[in-house]
């Protein structure tokens, strides 16, 4: 069992695990979860809990039943609910003599390299202090453009940044169902291909903002990062002990990868929708490990800034590489198709000659 061997485990708890249909906290369940975590901690593992539930607890505290809400209102509810959420964890962990720390993450905290490294250090120092980080998205200030919106991908990005061995994604499904009717789940996934994607059920639970689609996105991040991910049903007492006993879940297996930590971070970047389309010559150059020069750029899509993560696409529409651009979309629009020595004249200032340097790029094929 993969869990036995893991040193660092990220546990993602969905709102529907924590809060019942009437909006009440499932105290008995939480007690059993914390007891499970205590066992893992005692066997020397470092644990991170990524927990949803701020908005759901905010709603129940204010007795608001409405399901769909404007972003501004859900931000205010998250602000109220997050205090309850952290307090509930603190109370239950303290009973088991375990310390906790709170980490609220914004998209930029994982998507900007410097901030991601900083976040990684905070996690590591909490481990040194024997405290369990309790993580959620900083919902109170995140607007839709700069928001994860679901804790599936957030948990996966955290797992990748801290080099976790396993992400256990608890929700209200047993795993990825092969057949919805018979509730048959797939045991192991080695690659997320079209067949796997065809099993996605678009239905979401009443509280959580994620679904099977975001869980598969999370799985991709984990697999590229060399981390196992399990989708399992958390709605049982002692959900982790149960999972360790019956192994009822879908496991996503990590890819064998020679990528370094920074390259893994680049490959799994979230947030930028910028695309650079290149010609066949440039695609060949990238395959040979060269940088992307302006001459090979045909067109770009999206608005992005210098330093943003972008996707590089070839003439047949295939994803070639991901990388950090040294130029903004406005600048690239001015210099695309030109020779590198013309850049300075066109832009009016001196700059690098590579649009995406090979050291800031990872080939996808
Ligand atoms: N961050 C949200 C909350 O705490 C939940 C996001 C999700 O459901 O994935 O309510």
SSE layout and pairings?
Blueprint: H1 2-5, E1 8-13, H2 15-18, H3 27-42, E2 46-51, H4 54-61, H5 71-95, E3 99-105, H6 107-111, H7 113-128, E4 131-137, H8 151-161, E5 166-171, E6 177-179, E7 184-185, E8 188-189, H9 194-197, H10 212-225, E9 228-233, H11 239-246, E10 250-252, H12 261-267, E11 275-278, H13 280-287, E12 297-301, E13 309-313, E14 319-324, H14 329-335, H15 343-347, E15 361-363
Parallel strand pairs: 1-2, 1-5, 2-4, 3-4, 5-9, 8-10, 11-13
Antiparallel strand pairs: 6-7, 9-10, 11-12, 13-14, 14-15
This protein binds glutamic acid (GLU).
Question: Can you tell me about this structure?
Answer:
β6 (177-179) and β7 form a beta hairpin. α4 packs across α5. The longest helix is centred in the first third of the chain and has 25 residues, at 71-95. The chain is globular. The two termini are 31 Å apart. The model has no long low-confidence stretch (mean pLDDT 92). Strands 3-4-2-1-5-9-10-8 form an eight-stranded mixed beta sheet, with helices on both faces. A five-stranded mixed beta sheet has the order 12-11-13-14-15, with helices on both faces. It has two domains: 2-264, Carbamate kinase (3-Layer(aba) Sandwich), CATH 3.40.1160; 272-363, PUA domain (Archaeosine Trna-guanine Transglycosylase, Chain: A, domain 4, Roll). It is α/β, with parallel strands linked by helices and 365 residues long. The protein is built from 15 helices and 15 strands. Residues 15, 52-56, 78, 136-137, 139, 150-151, 208-210 line the site of glutamic acid.
């Amino acid at each position: 069992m993969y869990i036995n061997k893991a040193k660092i485990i990220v546990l993602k708890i969905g709102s529907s695990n924590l809060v019942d249909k009437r909006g009440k906290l499932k105290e008995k369940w939480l007690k059993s979860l914390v007891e499970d975590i205590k066992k893992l901690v005692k066997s020397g593992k470092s644990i991170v809990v990524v927990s949803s539930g701020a908005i759901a607890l905010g709603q129940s505290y204010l007795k608001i039943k409405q399901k769909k809400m404007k972003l501004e209102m859900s931000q205010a509810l998250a602000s109220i609910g997050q205090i309850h959420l952290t307090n509930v964890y603190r109370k239950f962990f303290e009973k088991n003599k375990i310390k906790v720390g709170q980490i609220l993450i914004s998209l930029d905290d994982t998507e900007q390299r410097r901030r991601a490294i900083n976040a990684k250090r905070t996690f590591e120092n909490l481990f040194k202090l024997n405290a369990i980080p309790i993580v959620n998205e900083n919902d109170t200030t995140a607007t839709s453009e700069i928001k994860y919106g679901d804790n599936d991908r957030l948990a996966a990005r955290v797992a990748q940044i801290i080099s976790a061995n396993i992400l256990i994604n608890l929700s209200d499904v047993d795993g990825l169902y092969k057949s919805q009717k018979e509730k048959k789940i797939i045991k192991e996934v080695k690659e997320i291909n079209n067949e796997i994607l065809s099993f996605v059920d678009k239905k979401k639970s009443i509280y959580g903002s994620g679904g099977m689609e975001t869980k598969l996105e999370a799985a991709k991040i984990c697999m590229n990062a060399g981390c196992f991910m399990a989708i399992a049903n958390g709605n049982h007492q002692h959900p982790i002990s149960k999972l360790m006993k019956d192994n009822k879940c879908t496991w996503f297996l990590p890819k064998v990868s020679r990528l370094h930590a920074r390259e893994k971070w680049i490959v799994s970047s979230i947030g930028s929708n910028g695309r650079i389309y290149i010609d066949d010559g440039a695609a060949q150059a990238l395959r040979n490990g060269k940088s992307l020069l302006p001459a090979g750029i045909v067109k770009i899509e999206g608005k992005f800034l210098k330093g943003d993560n972008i996707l590089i696409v070839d003439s047949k529409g295939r994803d070639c590489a991901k990388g950090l651009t040294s130029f903004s979309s406005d600048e690239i629009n001015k210099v695309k198709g030109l020779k590198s020595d013309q850049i300075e004249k066109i832009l009016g200032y001196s700059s690098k000659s590579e649009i995406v340097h090979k050291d800031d790029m990872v080939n996808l094929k």
